[in-house]
Specification:
Layout (H helix, E strand, L loop, with lengths): L2 H6 L9 H9 L3 H21 L4 H17 L10 H19 L19 H4 L4 H8 L4 H11 L5 H8 L3 H22 L1 H16 L3
Amino acid sequence: MNRKLFFNLRIPFSEDKLESVIKACLERNPHAQSLLYKQYFGFSKSVCLRYSSNQEEAKEILNEGFLKVFNNLGSYQPKYPFKAWLRTIMVNTAINYYRDNKKYNQELTIESIEEPIYDEDIINKISADEILTLVQKLTPAYRTVFVMHVVDGYNHREIGEILDISEGTSRSNFMKARMKLQILVQQEFPHLYENYHHETLKARQNGY
């Protein structure tokens, strides 16, 4: 069978209709698989990056995640949002990546220093990409708990069960992660803290 005839035998699908693309993916249509991958690549990578320390780790998680997506498309139910289903797979893949490599991770030691000022106004002046860069500087143990709790909404009991750690360890890692992030913000954006001190002092002088 020549190449032209082979392509003519493929069942057509509508590229602008997700249900049609998914159906074609289930039939192992490589064009549909490529289309689905490209369409949700950015969204999926953003999920993976939050759990990774660098681009290479994120790429590994992303590729493994999409392999699971294509292998489990048959379990997806169209009545539910596809992005939510995809996100769950990517998050679970990232968590499994951490668990598989946990023995190579080392805890981060936080020196005895005064805890920096934490103010929402300061954090709001930092871009999402800048915050992500700081989160990626955390050790895997701290970063995983922090992202699971803050971004993906797991409580500490759930985190403990998933990562096979105690609830207390989850809480401790989260607090240490939060403290380390505050330290990193102060180190990377000292001018924001200088402005904060200046504005606070000015407000006090004006009787606020």
